Amino acid sequence: MPFQPRVAILVPTPDYYEKWQPAFARKAAALTAAGLIVEQRVWTDPGDLSGHDLVLPLFAWGYQRDVAGWYGLLDRLEAEALPVVNPVPVLRWNSDKAYLAELGVKGVAVVPTIDVPALDDAGLAEAMAELAADEAVIKPAISGGADGTHRIARGAPVPRDAMGQRRLVQPLMPGILTDGEYSLFFFAGKFSHAIVKRPASGDFRVQEQFGGRETGWSASAAAQDLAAAALAAAPAPPVYARVDMVGDAAGTLRIMELELIEPSLFLHHAPDRGAAFGRAVYGAI
Predict the structure, then answer these.
(1) pLDDT at position 206 over 70
(2) Helix, strand or coil for residue 29?
(3) Which one, of 136, 148, 147, 140, lies nearest residue 112 by Cα?
């Protein structure tokens, strides 16, 4: 019988609010088809992982709500030298969107971002003036699922949940409202597929829980090149990756974020339904 590696996929706590099971089923099917044995472990208390050939944090959803617990898990995975994909240095680097500044320094087109250590009304006004933005988006530096993300008009007060907190301030990208947000997917460094996510009418958030919807997209060569340049800045080559980008006022694509921890991969839009994903993970063992 051929060797069948055991893979532990980290999943949310039982009380997590988003429906993750359908996406899990798609990923698990792709991994099983590649010859892997898939098991679930709750990310906040995964137990003994030493018997697994690989640990995948693919559904560690909600880590932004327990940052100390998340970093503690990364420290543990590293200390025990457990095989993790993506590698722990990549996970740690990708956890905090401070990496956007690093991408910008390296010449990658990113959404302009100002990191404010303790946001207040004066700090927000200053950041928006520096960005020359009439509307801004503020979000936590460690975030997911649009948690704590707000659209703010010039002169509006800082939302209560953001007051005094570290927040990223970005100009509202016009492309998110007119064309949507683009996501490109890479497995073992090779482009797989792409989608465009559009917000519901009157919203700017593209997540499904806010009424967002997605369709397949034929990614241009420029979009693929931009995504590849952003991924090249990671501490190590990611085995799986989602790159989110959006158009600015001039229509130029800019990186919004890299999803290298627990991204939705939308494998039902992949031409091979995830076969390349399964092969990439198997090849990392």
Answers:
(1) no
(2) helix
(3) 136
Is 249 found in the same domain as 225? yes
* Pairing mode, strands 37-42 and 150-153: unpaired
**Structural domain boundaries, residue 39:** 6-95
Identify the sign of the CA torsion 51, 57, 63, 64. positive
Distance, in Å, from the CA atom of 284 to the CA atom of 83, rounded to the nearest integer, reads 9
250 CB-contact burial (10 Å; exposed 0-12 / middle 13-18 / buried 19+): exposed
- Of 177, 125, 113, the residue nearest 153 (C-alpha): 125
Please compute the mean of the pLDDT values over residues 239-263 and round it to a whole number: 94
Instruction: Answer yes or no: is 284 within a domain.
Output: no
- For residue 107, is it left (φ>0), alpha (ψ between -120 and 50) or beta? left
Whether residue 87 lies inside any domain: the answer is yes
Q: Is residue 285 part of a domain?
A: no
Counting every residue written for the chain, the total comes to 285
pTM of this prediction exceeds 0.90: yes
Q: How many domains does the chain have?
A: 3
**Pairwise CA distance, residues 280 & 268, whole Å:** 17
Per-residue pLDDT at 8: 97
114 membership: H or E segment, kind and range? strand 114-116
- Give the pLDDT band (50/70/90) at residue 9: very high
